[in-house]
Amino acid sequence: MTAEPYVPEDADLDTLREAVHTCRGCPLYRDATQAVFGAGPSTARLVLVGEQPGDREDIEGEPFVGPAGRILDKALTEAGLTRDDVYVTNAVKHFKFQRADRGKPRIHKTPGRTEVVACAPWLVAEVTRIDPDLLVCLGATAAKSIHGPAFRITQDRGRIIPAATGPFEGRRTLATTHPSAVLRARDDRDEVYAGLVADLRIAAEA
Prior knowledge:
By secondary structure, the chain is an alpha/beta fold. The chain has 8 helices and 7 strands; from the N terminus they run αβααβββαβααββαα. It has one domain: Uracil-DNA glycosylase-like domain (Uracil-DNA Glycosylase, subunit E, 3-Layer(aba) Sandwich). The strands form 2 sheets. It has a 5-stranded mixed sheet with strand order 2-1-5-7-6, with helices on both faces. A two-stranded antiparallel sheet has the order 3-4. A hairpin with an 8-residue loop joins strand 3 (97-98) and strand 4. The longest helix has 18 residues, at 113-130.
């Protein structure tokens, strides 16, 4: 499985955004409402990579527009950035989920390694077109999509390090918590959020 045949060569971001809706590189397209491509300026110096679209993103067709997106926007502001300063996207472009009770949001399922690898040509195309100074990996799935499956956020979170292998080799990266982790946190929610803001400040200064 791979999205490579569906990714037009030498296309600009607008062309890629249209082409992603034709992708059949993995089975996730069958149940998702639509593919969700990245959004933001083509001149962005920071590219933020999340895991996959969520329930709201799948419906609206834009990245980070649900509850986690609101957390991200707030954290970016506290870090001295705005959504207009960054390009946001996901490692996987279709929503993987479990069915939920009628009227409730569908339940997120973590994409598997096969799906992440299959979708990688889209992320490679985005990053190549934008050529940012820094890739910010939001969460473990995003970090592993850049660094490979052996990467551990617990060891390298908040540090600016180059990707060592694969199509992103040599690019500067910073791994941090996904904003959804703030929503899932209970007693330590303030601490988790503060860590996200601190890491985004490092990215902004870089």
